[in-house]
C-alpha cells in the first residue's frame, strides 16, 4: 500500500522553502479536494482582509481524489484564491494532462504563499522540488514557455503557466496547461494572482502510483458505465462544444451584439462546430483518462507554422464571435489563438471587446482613447489590436485590464448600461433570458457569474438528476421550483469541482451513487449520498462566508441591466426576462441565508463550518 | 411505408430507449415532420418531452436534424423529405464550456 490521498506541498516563495502537509482525513471527508479544500485551507491560513494580490494572499492548485485514476473524465485540476477580478472568492478548473501528472509526483495539491523577488518557475520532478530562475521566460507567451521548459526539462514534463497578461496583472488573466493545445483555468483572473507571485510556471513530472485502495472493485464499477457515458456524450465527441453555436442561437441563448440582439442565424452557421469540423479540424483533443475527446485540434492561424493548437470552444466562439458580430471562423480562431498565447480569459476578453465596440458606436470612446484604432462591429482586426493593448496594458487597454465594471465606472456616462457584468466579471455565453435559472446561478455563484458554477440550464433542457429531485426536465422560462433546483445543482457541482471530475459526466449519467462507490474504492471512505450533497453545500457556504468577510451581500447578488430589462424579442427567447427578484428571495430562504444574503449562524452550525 | 435508420445523439434522458444507433424504423409518411409524429406515437410521453418544445408544442428548436450525415436548416425541417434507406439523426448538445 502506497501513500494516501491528501498530500499538499506548501511553498513559501519569499524564502524559497517548502514543506509537505498531510491533510487530516476528517478534513478531507468534509471538503474532499479542489476548490472546497482550497477554501478550507484559505480559512485556516489567512486571517483578516488580505487583498487578492498581496503577497500573503495564497494561490491554490488542487486536484481531487479521482484525478488520474481509472475513473473516466477525471483528468482535471483547479486553481483558486481570492479573485483579483471580483475581490471575492475565485476559482477555475481545467482538464488537460497537468493534474494527473501532479498526482504522479506524489502530491495532490500545491499552495503558493508569499512572493518571489524574481521571476521563477517551480518544478517538481521525480520528487525533487526546485525553484528555477525564470527571467528568460518572462515575457514569453504560454506556447513558448511550454516549449522552452520541455526543451530544458524533457518532453514528459507537464507545464502550467501564465502568459504576458498574467505577468502584467491583467485582472482576467488565466492559468494555462498543455502548451499549444491550450487548456485553461480561465475565469476569475487567477493568472494575475499567480503572476503577482512572480511564478511563471509550475512544472511537474513523476512516476508515483496514484493511490487507489481497491483497484479491482473500481474497475468493476466502471466497466458498464463507460460505454453508456461515451454514448450519451457522443455529440461532444463529434462536434465538441462548438456544436452548441447553432442550437444556442436558435433558442435565444447565444449572446449577439453585446447581448442586445437575439437573431443571428445565418452568421451563427458560419462559426459553428459543423464548419469547424469540415474546414479546420485536424483531430480531437482528449484530456487525461477521457474517452470522449470534446477538445478540438486545429492548425495555427496566427502562426501558420504551428501544426496543432486548440480550437475555440463554444464560449470563445460566442464571446469573440457572435457577441462582437465577427462571423468569420478563421478570424475567431485567430483571436482564440491570440488569447491563449497571451494567457487571457477569452470569455472576459470577448465581453470586453464587445463592450468597447458598443462604447465606440455610441461615441463614448474614440480617437482620444484609441488613436486610429477603429472598433466597428465585426472588425476582427480592431479586436485583435485591442486584445494586444489589454494584455500589454497599453493605453486604453490598461483601463480595460482592470475589469468591465471598473472601466465603465471610469468612462462614465451610459457606459455602465453596456457593461454586461456582475461584480466586475463578465457574464459567460449563456443567456438568463433564455434560461431563467441562469439568473440565479450567475448572481449567487460562489465565484462570480460562471455558467460552470451550476450548469443549471442543463436541467431546463434535456437532462435530469433524480438523486437531487430533478426527475423531469423543467420549463426554461418558469420561476417555479428554480430556487430549489439551483441550490441543489450548485451543491452537487461544488462536489464535482472538489472531486476534480468533469461535469460533462453528469450528462453522461454519473450520479451520486457512483461517486459514493468510487470514493469507497479509492479512499476507503464510507460516505452516504446525503453526506456528499452536504459536502457540496458546506463548501458553497464556506466560500460565501469568505466572500461575506470581503463585503459580499444582497447588493452584489444581481445581474446587469441589459439581461434584466432588455428584451431580445427577435430571437428564440422571445419577450422573456428572468423573474429575478421572486427567485432570489426564494433562493435565500432555501439556502438558509437572511434577507441580506448572509448565511445564518444556524446554517453554519448545521454544516459544521 | 419506408425503412430508414434513426439515431438520437445528445438525449441522455431517452438513452435507455435509443442507445447508440442507428435503429431501424418504418416510417408511415415521407417527411421529417411525419417522422417526429411517428416516433412520438410509438414511444410515448418521454420521447414527446425530449423532442418537443413545451411552450410551442413544436420540435425543440435546439434540436438539429441530419440526413445521411448532413444537417438541414431549421426552415427546411417541416417539409424535408426522407427517402428509403436514409439515416436521420436527431442531434442536440447540452453542454458548453
Quick tags:
heterodimer, A: 609 residues, alpha+beta, Aldehyde Ferredoxin Oxidoreductase,  A, domain 1, Aldehyde Ferredoxin Oxidoreductase Protein, subunit A, domain 2, Aldehyde Ferredoxin Oxidoreductase Protein, subunit A, domain 3, 3 domains, 17 strands, globular, B: alpha+beta, Ubiquitin-like (UB roll), 5 strands
User: Helix count of chain A, per DSSP?
Assistant: 28
Distance between the first and last residues' Cα of chain B: 42 Å
CATH class term of the largest domain in chain A: Alpha Beta
Q: Look at the helices and sheets of chain A and give the structural class.
A: alpha+beta
Let me know the number of strands of chain B.
Answer: 5
The main sheet of chain A orders its strands as: 2-1-6-3-4-5
Low-confidence parts of chain A: none
Low-confidence stretches of chain B: none
Please name the CATH architecture of the largest domain in chain A: 4-Layer Sandwich
Termini separation of chain A comes to 33 Å
Helix content class of chain B: 10-25%
CATH fold topology of the largest domain in chain A: Aldehyde Ferredoxin Oxidoreductase,  A, domain 1
Number of helical runs of chain B? 2
What is the CATH top level name of chain B? Alpha Beta
Chains forming the largest contact: A-B, 43 and 27 residues
Q: CATH homologous superfamily of chain B, by name?
A: Beta-grasp domain
Overall 3D form of chain A: globular
Portion of residues within helices of chain A = 40-55%
- Beta-strand fraction estimate of chain A: 5-15%
Amino acid at each position: 500500500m502506497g501513500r494516501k490521498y491528501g498530500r499538499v506541498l506548501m511553498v513559501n516563495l519569499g524564502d524559497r522553502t517548502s514543506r509537505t502537509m498531510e491533510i487530516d482525513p476528517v478534513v478531507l471527508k468534509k471538503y474532499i479536494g479542489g476548490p472546497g479544500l482550497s477554501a478550507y485551507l484559505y480559512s485556516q491560513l489567512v486571517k483578516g482582509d488580505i487583498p487578492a494580490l498581496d503577497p500573503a494572499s495564497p494561490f491554490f492548485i488542487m486536484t481531487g481524489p479521482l484525478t488520474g485514476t481509472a475513473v473516466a473524465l477525471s483528468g482535471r485540476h483547479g486553481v483558486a484564491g481570492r479573485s483579483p477580478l471580483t475581490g471575492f472568492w475565485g476559482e477555475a478548473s481545467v482538464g488537460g494532462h497537468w493534474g494527473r501528472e501532479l498526482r504522479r509526483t506524489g502530491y495532490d495539491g500545491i499552495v503558493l504563499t508569499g512572493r518571489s523577488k524574481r521571476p521563477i518557475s517551480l518544478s517538481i520532478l521525480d520528487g525533487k522540488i526546485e525553484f528555477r530562475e525564470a527571467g528568460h521566460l518572462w515575457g514569453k507567451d504560454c506556447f513558448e514557455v511550454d516549449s522552452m521548459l520541455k526543451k530544458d526539462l524533457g518532453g514528459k514534463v507537464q507545464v502550467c503557466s501564465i502568459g504576458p497578461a498574467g505577468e502584467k496583472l491583467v485582472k482576467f488573466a488565466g492559468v494555462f496547461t498543455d502548451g499549444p493545445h491550450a487548456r485553461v483555468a480561465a475565469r476569475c483572473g487567477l493568472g494575475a494572482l499567480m503572476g503577482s507571485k512572480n511564478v511563471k510556471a509550475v512544472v511537474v513530472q513523476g512516476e508515483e502510483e496514484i493511490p487507489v485502495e481497491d483497484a479491482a472493485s473500481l474497475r468493476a464499477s466502471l466497466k458498464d458505465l463507460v460505454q453508456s457515458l461515451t454514448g450519451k456524450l457522443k455529440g461532444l465527441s463529434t462536434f465538441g462544444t462548438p456544436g452548441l453555436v447553432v442550437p444556442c442561437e436558435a433558442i435565444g441563448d447565444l449572446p449577439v451584439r453585446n447581448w442586445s440582439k437575439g437573431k443571428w442565424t445565418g452568421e451563427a452557421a458560419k462559426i459553428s462546430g459543423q464548419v469547424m469540423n469540415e474546414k479546420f479540424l485536424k483531430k480531437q483533443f482528449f484530456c487525461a483518462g477521457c474517452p470522449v475527446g470534446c477538445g478540438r485540434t486545429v492548425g495555427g492561424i496566427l502562426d501558420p507554422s504551428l501544426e496543432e493548437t486548440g480550437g475555440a470552444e463554444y464560449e470563445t466562439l460566442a464571446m469573440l464571435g457572435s457577441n462582437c458580430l465577427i462571423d468569420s471562423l478563421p478570424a475567431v480562431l485567430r483571436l482564440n489563438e491570440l488569447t491563449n498565447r497571451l494567457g487571457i480569459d477569452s470569455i472576459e476578453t470577448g465581453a470586453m471587446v464587445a463592450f468597447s465596440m458598443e462604447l465606440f458606436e455610441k461615441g463614448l470612446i474614440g480617437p482620444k482613447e484609441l488613436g486610429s484604432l477603429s472598433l466597428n462591429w465585426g472588425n476582427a482586426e480592431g479586436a485583435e489590436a485591442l486584445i494586444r493593448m489589454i494584455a500589454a496594458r497599453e493605453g486604453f487597454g490598461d483601463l480595460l485590464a482592470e475589469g468591465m465594471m471598473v472601466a465603465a465606472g471610469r468612462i462614465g456616462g451610459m457606459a455602465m448600461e453596456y457593461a454586461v457584468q456582475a461584480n466586475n466579471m463578465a457574464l459567460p455565453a449563456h443567456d438568463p433570458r433564455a434560461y431563467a435559472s441562469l439568473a440565479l446561478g450567475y448572481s449567487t455563484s460562489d465565484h462570480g457569474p460562471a455558467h460552470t458554477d451550476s450548469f443549471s440550464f442543463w436541467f431546463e433542457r434535456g437532462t435530469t438528476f433524480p438523486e437531487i429531485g430533478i426527475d423531469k426536465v423543467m420549463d426554461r422560462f418558469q420561476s417555479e421550483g428554480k430556487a430549489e433546483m439551483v441550490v441543489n445543482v450548485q451543491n452537487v457541482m461544488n462536489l464535482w469541482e472538489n472531486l476534480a471530475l468533469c461535469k460533462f459526466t453528469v450528462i453522461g449519467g454519473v450520479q451520486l451513487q457512483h461517486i459514493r462507490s468510487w470514493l469507497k474504492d479509492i479512499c476507503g471512505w464510507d460516505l452516504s449520498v446525503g453526506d456528499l450533497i452536504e459536502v457540496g453545500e458546506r463548501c458553497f457556504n464556506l466560500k460565501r462566508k469568505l466572500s461575506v468577510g470581503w463585503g459580499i451581500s444582497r447588493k452584489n447578488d444581481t445581474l446587469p441591466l441589459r439581461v434584466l430589462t432588455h428584451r431580445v424579442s427577435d430571437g428564440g427567447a422571445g419577450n422573456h426576462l428572468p423573474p429575478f427578484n421572486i427567485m432570489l428571495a426564494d433562493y435565500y430562504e432555501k439556502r438558509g441565508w437572511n434577507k441580506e444574503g448572509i448565511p445564518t449562524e444556524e446554517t453554519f452550525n448545521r454544516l459544521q463550518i | 411505408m419506408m425503412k430508414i435508420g434513426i439515431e438520437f445523439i445528445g438525449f441522455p434522458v431517452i438513452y435507455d430507449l435509443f442507445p447508440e444507433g442507428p435503429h431501424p424504423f418504418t416510417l408511415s409518411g415521407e417527411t421529417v415532420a411525419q417522422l417526429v409524429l411517428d416516433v412520438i406515437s410509438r414511444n410515448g410521453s418521454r420521447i414527446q418531452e425530449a423532442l418537443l418544445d413545451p411552450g410551442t408544442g413544436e420540435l425543440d428548436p435546439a434540436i438539429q436534424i441530419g440526413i445521411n450525415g448532413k444537417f438541414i436548416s431549421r426552415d427546411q425541417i417541416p417539409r424535408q423529405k426522407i427517402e428509403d434507406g436514409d439515416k436521420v439523426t436527431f442531434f442536440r448538445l447540452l453542454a458548453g464550456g
